[in-house]
Amino acid sequence: MSEKNNNSNKKKNFAKVEAKTYTKMRGFLHYLIIYFILYPFFKIFYRVEVEGRENIPKDRSIIVASNHLSHFDPVIVSLAMKRPVGYMAKLELFHVPVLSQIIQTLGAIAVNRDKLEIATIRSAKAVLTTDWLLGIFPEGTRIKSGKIGKVQKGFGYLAKSTNSDVLPMGIVGSDTFCGKLRIKIGKPIPVCDPEEMIEKWALSISELTGFDYEKEEEIQKNLESSESQSV
C-alpha cells in the first residue's frame, strides 16, 4: 500500500494547485493549527515581539518574503500575519511521508529550486486571487544567523510574473531555543525588475534584522582576492 502511495506521489505535480484549494474552511483549519496548537508553544518558550503590522495590506493579497533561520519560520510568519498563508516549499518535502500530507493540507506549493516552473507561477497567481497570502523564503534554505544568504533568482522573477508587491519580514531569534523572538515587518516593495527586487528585498531584510548583506559580485571579488593571495 505504501509503495502504491509513493508511486502516486512521484507522478503527482505538487506545483499545480488551484484557487479553489484556498477555501475558508481550509483557512479555518490553518487558523486552528497555528493558534491553538503551535501558538501556545511560542508563548511558553519565547518572548515574542512583532513590529510593523500596520504595513500589512488589508485590502489585497501579497507575497510575504522572510529570511530563513529555522524550521519554525513558516509558523512564525503565519502568527505575525494573522491571515492564512500558502507557502512555497521545496519539492523534496512533498515526498516525505506524513509531512507531505500536512503541508498539502495547509496549502503549500512545491518549488523546484533548480528552475522556476510555469505550474509554480500559475499556482502562485491562483493563491494571490484569494484572501490568502503567499509565503516564500527567497534564500531557499536556512541560513546562519547574522547573515543574509544568496537570494534565489527565481524569487525576483516570481514577483514580476505574478505582478505582486513583496512584503519583507525580518526574523531574529528563531534559530535558538527559548529567549527573545523578534519579528519586524517592512513596507511593501512595489513590483519591479527581478534583479532590482532581489536587491531591494535583501537590503530591507538587512535593515530589519541587522544581518550582514554581501552582494554576489562582492562575494566573487573577495573570493578572487583570497585566491590570488594564496598563490
Features:
231 residues, alpha/beta, Glycerol-3-phosphate (1)-acyltransferase, 8 helices, globular, disordered N terminus
Mean of residue pLDDT values: 87
Total helices: the number is 8
Q: Unreliable runs, pLDDT <50, ≥5 residues?
A: 1-9
CATH class term: Alpha Beta
- Helix-and-strand structural type: alpha/beta
CATH-scheme architecture: 3-Layer(aba) Sandwich
The ordered string of helix (H) and strand (E) elements is HHEEHEHEHEHEEHH
Describe the protein in words.
The protein has 231 residues and is an alpha/beta fold. 43% of the residues lie in helices and 16% in strands. The chain has one domain: Glycerol-3-phosphate (1)-acyltransferase (3-Layer(aba) Sandwich). The protein has eight helices and seven strands; from the N terminus they run H-H-E-E-H-E-H-E-H-E-H-E-E-H-H. The radius of gyration is 18 Å and the shape is globular. It starts with a helix and ends with a helix.
Helix and strand topology:
Elements: H1 2-11, H2 24-45, E1 46-51, E2 63-66, H3 73-81, E3 85-90, H4 99-105, E4 109-111, H5 118-127, E5 133-136, H6 153-162, E6 166-172, E7 179-185, H7 194-209, H8 216-230
Parallel strand pairs: 1-7, 2-5, 2-6, 3-4, 3-5
Antiparallel strand pairs: 6-7
Helix pairs in contact: 6-7
Short description:
The chain is of the alpha/beta class. The protein has a single domain, classed as Glycerol-3-phosphate (1)-acyltransferase (3-Layer(aba) Sandwich). The protein is built from eight helices and seven strands, in the order ααββαβαβαβαββαα.
